[in-house]
Amino acid sequence: MISNIVLIGFMGTGKSTIGRVLSQRLGYRLIDTDAEIVRRCGREIHEIFNEKGEKYFREVESSIIDEVSKTDNVIIACGGGVVKNRDNVRKLKEKGFIVCLKADIDTIYKRVAYDGNRPLAGGKTKKDLQDLLNEREKLYESAYIFIDTTDIKPSEAADSIINAFMKTRQ
Ligand code: S3P
Predict the structure, then answer these.
(1) Could you tell me the CA-to-CA distances from 102 to 28, 65, 94, 105 in Å, in that order?
(2) What are phi and psi of 14, to 5 degrees?
(3) According to the model, what pLDDT value does residue 114 have?
(4) What is the pTM for the complete model shown?
(5) What does the pLDDT average to over 53-59?
(6) Atom of ligand 1 nearest to the CA of 132
């Protein structure tokens, strides 16, 4: 039974923001995987990458996915790289309505390029981000619906997601 909404998508597409709106609207608990990693490790994302490396970050991320994918009635806002691990996606799909958020590259660049807490985006050029996005594109295809957040408000994105989610429950 599908009981969760799972937000996937590239950095800067609005997963955490829209996750908060969905959580308020539906009264479902929000689990933001990045925030959960920070809470568990007692360190910021860029510190974890610097001190322990990406491999360690991915291990913590996967263990969180393993736990939260078994829960019901939650909104799961995933870090952009969660989809790199096929097992993560498989687990999330068991109870999750998978939504992929998108945005055009100029918008993504504006939202993330100067963010010192995003180790894979901070200080990168637009071309670097486009290359990473191209690499990831295929991995995001596992979603049931795609929402482009470039020109819409988080509340509008949330409306579309809730409508589509409710249809799966009729
Ligand atoms: C990452 C995305 C980030 C965060 C980490 C790695 C990625 O999350 O998990 O910096 O590999 O795309 P956001 O998508 O919330 O920025």
Answers:
(1) 23, 21, 23, 9
(2) 105, 20
(3) 87
(4) 0.97
(5) 98
(6) 12
Q: Residue 108: left (phi > 0), alpha (psi -120 to 50), or beta?
A: alpha
Helices (H), the chain: 15-26, 33-41, 45-68, 86-95, 105-112, 126-137, 154-168
Amino acid present at 73: N
64 lines ligand 1 (CB under 6 A): no
pLDDT digits (tens, 9 = 90+) for 63-82: 999 999 999 999 999 999 99
Q: Supply 159's token pair.
A: 């409306």
| Structure-block tokens of residue 4 | 């969760």
Close Cβ partners of 122 (under 8 Å, ≥ 6 residues apart): 46, 112, 113, 114, 115, 116
Q: Tokens 């991320």 map to which residue?
A: 61
Do residues 139 and 131 touch, judged by C-beta distance below 8 A? no
118 with 112: CB under 8 angstroms?
yes
Q: How far is 169 from 73, CA to CA, in rounded Å?
A: 13
Alpha carbons 99 and 61: distance in angstroms, whole number: 19
- For residue 19 and ligand 1, the question of a CB distance below 6 A is answered with no
User: What atom of ligand 1 comes closest to residue 15's alpha carbon?
Assistant: 15
CA-nearest residue, atom 4 of ligand 1: 79
Instruction: State residue 146 phi and psi, 5-degree precision.
Output: -125, 135
